[in-house]
FAA hydrolase family protein (Gulosibacter molinativorax), 276 residues
Amino acid sequence: MSYISYIHQGQLHVGEVDGANVVPLDGVTEIGRFTPENVLDQATRLPHLTVALDEVQLRPVVPNPGKIFCVGLNYDTHITETKREKPTYPVLFPKYASSLIAAGEAIQLPPETTQFDYEAELAVVIGRSGRRIPESRALEHVMGYTVANDVTVRDYQYKTHQWLQGKAWDNTTPLGPSLVRPHEVDLSKARITTVLNGEVMQDSNLSYLIFSIARLISTVAEFTELQPGDVILTGTPGGVGYRRDPQVFLQDGDEVTIEVEGVGRLTNSVAREIVR
């Protein structure tokens, strides 16, 4: 069972995906801070308003998260290619809701960069609030999982030893297309890939995460309260464009697909941003 946030005939909806169709939930307009996990389970389905998926406009699966946490250096292969030391504490940085776009929407390539890079990531969506959550109970706070492309402006990321300015550009982070509930998927060895214009660029699986999903939730909740709709991007495996030889960067007209086995496939084109 998976859920999407979408627009149909100008109205905002959340719906349950049923094959090639989506069944809207009564009174639920987006997945986020006002949809703790039980809302999705308990909302009344409106089968008489079922529409085909290709007739709706997808939104980022969580359009307006209160907080977005990202994790750097969470796979050995990525640490090796960056020539950094293995961290003993998760490397964390934020993104903002303005960075998010939907599946199928064009990733906006800023004119300021010549080093625009992809990063395949599993994203965790929080469904139950909590502070100082013990690792042993952290997964109880997960609403579900989705797919993210943590697109990075490398020439801005490395201007300083902080990464924010390379990670938080508007309209550059696809999130979706759908939310999969935890009991619907086995992530223990789920494959994660990036395919750029038909070529596999990243290929790993989630068993190689250095810091587990539970550890990440517990770590973040130690310093701030997690709330429904908050999102944690769990890091990317090796194979990013910046570390390849020769380097590979996203260009206007490219198509990039991120897939996490059992969670979903996230495809976006790249389009040069028009500055007005």
